[in-house]
Amino acid sequence: MVYDDNEQQQHCKNDGSCSSSYVVGHHAMNSILYANKKADEYRRHLGLTQDTRATVDNVLDPRTINILNKMRNRGVFTDVSGTISTGKEANVYYATTTTTDDTYSDELTNGGGLALKVYKTSILVFKDRSKYVEGEYRFRKGYCKSNPRKMVTMWAEKEMRNLKRLNMYNIPSPNVIECRNNVLVMEYLGSDATHSYPRLKDISNSMVMDIYIQVITIMRVMFNKCHLVHGDLSEFNLLLSPQGVVYVIDVSQSVEHDHYQALDFLKRDIVNITRFFRKTMINEHHHDHHDDQHQHQLHLLHVNTLFD
Length: 308
Prior knowledge:
By secondary structure, the protein is α+β, with helices and mostly antiparallel strands. 34% of the residues lie in helices and 17% in strands.
């Protein structure tokens, strides 16, 4: 298959009837293939093998390409023009949309960009993720460990439902546009493909205490109102907008607050966040010698205080 920009393919049958379909653009495919190559090199470094259903790219098997083509044909997005991130579970790509009606007006609060999260269909990636699904009433029918596509579809659905619950209680997070099998379409957090909101790990901000208060508030609201525990909260999946608002991402592993390991996951989240902010505040103190020392005392809540 040749991936030319805006290529329209004609499919004709013996009876003379024809139909048209668009394929993913050349630049979009190059971007996706490059990202997948990097992820595949990382997996080989760990000594992992690929699922036989997946292509050498580990993401773009024929079914996934078909899903992307159908989404484009329906106008969900018009082009994929960049790679946002690559990971062992999924790759995220920047997509544009030319939707002029009100279809996504409520979801696209940060502009017209979209984030396409494509989950990998390798069973090796998700084989150790059952602990985040088993024990949840929402997924009481079970986690089909023998079928990698069903596993990844459930994982994508889980992230979609968790994001919708965060949105319901006004926790800053990407709005969900659509979820189809292993492809999740979300609001993009940033101005364009090269200017996404930075992760907390990448910032140097004098408003550290304000950011810290936002984060612990998010954890409390997630637990008390959303009835969710993030399960993997750290400086790597918290973003900061230009207005100083903290956004939560990557909630596929988030569990209900009554999950049998929920409190263990919550305590781990608190330890991770406390460790990061303690280190950040120490660095801020060392780099700012002119302010009063009292202003830089580590006024972090103790882990037990947050946990109790």
